[in-house]
Amino acid sequence: MAAVVLCPALAGAQDRVGGGGWGGYESPLGHVRAYSGVTGGFAPGQINMYGLGGVFEPKAVIWDFIVLGARIDGAALLGVDAQSVSQAQLALRIVGAAMLKAELLLFPGEIRPFIGLGVGWYAAVMVAGGAGGTNSFSGTGPGGMPQIGVDLGWFRAAAQYHFMLGELGAANYLSVELAWRVY
User: Fold this and answer.
1) 17-59 per-position pLDDT tens digit
2) What three-state secondary structure class fits 163?
3) Any idea of the CA torsion for 47, 48, 50, 53, to the nearest 10 degrees?
């Protein structure tokens, strides 16, 4: 990413993106953008889990329709099965990720649908328990995140699925993201 920021030949990419910059909006840093936002997550399972998270994503427009960057993502999901007090169960899942990400912007203009793919390293903690006892699991490992969404310039909405490989596969979840551009 440093090569993109420092390379003058690529620095002109924001001029090629159409309509005065990426999504028709200029950035004080030219072709470099960063988004920050909130996510709502869902993880199906024996106990369905729902939760909230956050994301920070700096990136650079490499060419008209190609964007490369990094992503830091975290979420906490909670599920409760309380059909009766004596059999109540609680589950908690906390997942964090650091990844490299690429996006393909599908159309020119101010409203730009996109598809993305992130690959990186995940860390997860899962705890479940009830009247019969508790169990827990924690670990780190590789994973990926396919994404589809729409970029509106200063705002974006997207859906993504976080999948982790190996033993962390039990921590997979789906999330919806609402993010705004911070620069």
Assistant:
1) 444 454 544 555 568 889 999 999 999 988 899 999 999 999 9
2) strand
3) 80
CB of 39 closer than 8 Å to CB of 53: yes
CA 104 to chain centre: 15
- pLDDT mean over 124-131: 90
Copy the structure tokens of residue 121.
């390293």
17's tokens: 């993106």
Give φ, ψ of 54 to 5 degrees.
-140, 160
Residue whose C-alpha is closest to residue 58's, from 183, 172, 177? 183
Residue with tokens 């920070």: 56
Question: Hey, is 68 helix, strand or coil?
Answer: strand
